[in-house]
Amino acid sequence: MKISVIGCGYLGAVHAASMAELGHDVVGIDVDQPKIAALQDAKAPFYEPGFEELLGRSLASGRLRFSTDMADARDAVLHFVCVGTPQKRGEYAADMRYVESAVESLLEALKPGDLVAGKSTVPVGTAARLAELVEGKVPGAMLAWNPEFLREGFAVQDTLHPDRLVYGLPADGNGERARAMLDEVYASIVATGTPQVITDYATAEMVKTAANSFLATKISFINAMAELCEATGADVKQLADAIGHDDRIGRKFLNAGLGFGGGCLPKDIRAFMARAGELGADQALTFLREVDNINMRRRIRMVELAREVCDGSLLGKRVAVLGAAFKPDSDDIRDSPALNVAAQLQLQGAVVQVTDPAAGENIKRSWPQLDVVDTPEEAAKGADAVLLLTEWKQYRELDPVAFGKIVKQKRVLDGRNALDRDSWTDAGWTYRALGRRAG
Ligand code: UGA
Asked: What pLDDT is stored for residue 428 in this prediction?
């Protein structure tokens, strides 16, 4: 199938390369010239395991190319809209300007019979509005909403092997045609028996925001329990293991620690609240405000804990921060809890050395005031405290004995409950973590 992918950020670039991998003829379009040049050159503009190989393969097959010119979408019959919907400055609502302008300029390239498939995370009601625009300007063209659930760090796998396909289809006679086109593009995924949810626009849009809200709530739930564990002396890790054995609860997304960040969960729950307010249903989502509050409190608590272990003052203390991306296997530092804590420590007078296997360049660009070093050993040299804030595998596997020889004080703060407490305490370290007693 000939398809275009509008917006080549995280979602779009991976989607474009994956669709080419599935055998389609794909053009990825973005207004960002340097990004398009990098992609066309088989260079991933972000860190994502497996993506660069996929990109190289897809380009070499001749089925994938990139362009800044929307006219190149003219040959395609299916157009995926994958642009970002960040949080508006000073407001909770999503900034829709990229979606608006992508669809506006796509109109020029659309023909009757074409399908526009929205993948961006949007406020409920957007698809119905855009469908009117598309059908009004190009009679015979259609719109569907097809949310994407990929996780950074697993983007390729999640795109090629999604756990469900959700189609929000037009209510009129075009519904069947739109479905057939989506089934054709995802034919090999459908053939493996992937569950499909065929529904209306509003439900499809809400599936995405509801899923992210549920995940955020689950994380904040266990982090609220961590606060209680700190007050009672209970252990949040064992608590999570124990309640997670109940199938109805499940152990996934019950890792207590610094909480959620990134370009999705924080802004999605806020945009959802803002949209509910516009719809006069704000009461239904007031709990998400608490989810957000619990999440933010963990960052503050981490800074307090660091001050506590540094004998009550951070002034002049050398602090090593291991991990800065919002989660492992990513170089994404958007709303990163780790960076938030690192910056706070520095503002409170600590001498902070940050290290991250992938996010170094992004930190230097966006947080030039922070010192970035290449290795955990460099970061920890002469440190009064070591903070593990993003649980990269290489940090989880550090040898506490060897590492203990580098630091000034053997104090480790495990912001992700990811270290083996016993092996660190056995090596003479003072171990502190959110929601667990001191070791
Ligand atoms: C999230 C969703 O998981 C995807 O399904 C969705 O498609 C994506 O947002 C999106 O909207 O595009 P992602 O932002 O890549 O994916 O990251 P997650 O794996 O969900 O992690 C989010 C944050 O929660 C990270 O900061 C992570 O460290 C934190 N987290 C996760 C916890 O604090 N505890 C946990 O148990 C799990």
From this structure: 98
Specify if 439 maps to a domain: no
Which of 284, 223, 224, 214 shows the shortest CA–CA distance to 249? 214
229 in active site: no
254 lines ligand 1 (CB under 6 A): yes
The range of the structural domain enclosing residue 339 comes to 215-433
- Is the domain of 9 the same as that of 157? yes
In total, the chain counts a number of residues equal to 439
Query: Which residue CA neighbors atom 7 of ligand 1 most closely?
Result: 149
Q: What is the pLDDT of residues 10-61, one digit of tens each?
A: 999 999 999 999 999 999 999 999 999 999 999 999 999 999 999 999 999 9
**What tens digit of pLDDT does each residue of 90-134 get?**
999 999 999 999 999 999 999 999 999 999 999 999 999 999 999
- The closest residue, in CA terms, to atom 3 on ligand 1 is 151
Tell me if 151 CB under 6 Å of ligand 1: yes
Strands 142-145 and 115-118: parallel
DSSP string, 352-388: EEEE-TTTHHHHHHH-TTSEEESSHHHHHTT-SEEEE
Residue bearing tokens 């991306």: 325
Rounded CA gap, 274 and 313, in Å?
39
Is 80 contained in some domain? Answer: yes
pTM of the model: 0.97
Supply the residue whose CA is at minimum distance from atom 34 of ligand 1. Answer: 255
Going across the sheet that includes 78-81, the strands are 64-67, 25-29, 2-6, 78-81, 115-118, 142-145, 165-168, 196-199
**Number of the ligand 1 atom closest to the C-alpha atom of 268:** 11
- Report the CATH number at residue 34: 3.40.50.720
